[in-house]
């Protein structure tokens, strides 16, 4: 039995649901199920009672949970501290970003470098589901994550807020309009990215502020697939304007303002127990330059997404003072 199996086992025990546990671990459900079966084979007994509606620990599972609870956390903390020590000896800060937010992240790094030339920052491209896990594990020091997201063990600050727009096929009945309401788009299929919760699904479907009828469209992984699915007439999409290339409206799609659609919040995120001075310095500089980058992209720096979307405590006082 290794630490990875322990982490998988505890995730299922905490979530009582294989799908949610897999999403939290940034892995597929079949892979997680196989890993748990392998652990049960090693133990020689079932660890969970599985029903169509729930997952519960068996007596053997409860004994194992009592013995291993905390081991994964201690191991993760040890690895994180080792990585932090490596960073403090000169390793660049690692910032996890999605490819579609790469331009914004690049401007952030440029602006921060002008204020702190000695602090190097490395951009790490990843998908949105993997971003929180990368920060929790210490593989990355920070992340720029679109809210809402799974904020377990994470702290964050809103770095930039921008409007979302609707993207429809050029032949869509509303394509000639410049502005629409969500009611105009009721019942439309909506593209869905790699999301980890019902809250995220509702947000990307434009149903987060008020429940509205919608259908799930094709699953997509990036902005290019979003544009392709929309251009083919398979679905519509609600996305931050900065995700789209300048020529988006000439590529078989139309971009429409939506007057009652919630905005997109891009949050600078780090691991909750972090006491790294380098992280605190970067967060401070990032917040200081947010206005400059926001103005370049037609965005704002204020909170515009409901605080319930994700936990958002401020940088710890000692980090601000030491920055």
TrEMBL record:
Transcription regulation listed as a keyword: yes
Iron-sulfur as UniProt keyword: no
Keywords, ordered alphabetically: DNA-binding, Transcription, Transcription regulation
GO molecular function, one term: DNA binding
Top-level lineage group: Bacteria
GO CC terms, sorted: protein-DNA complex
Domain HTH lysR-type as annotated: residue spans: 1-58
SUPFAM superfamilies from the UniProt entry: Periplasmic binding protein-like II (SSF53850), Winged helix' DNA-binding domain (SSF46785)
Family: Belongs to the LysR transcriptional regulatory family.
Protein's name in the database: LysR family transcriptional regulator
Source organism (scientific name): Streptomyces fumanus
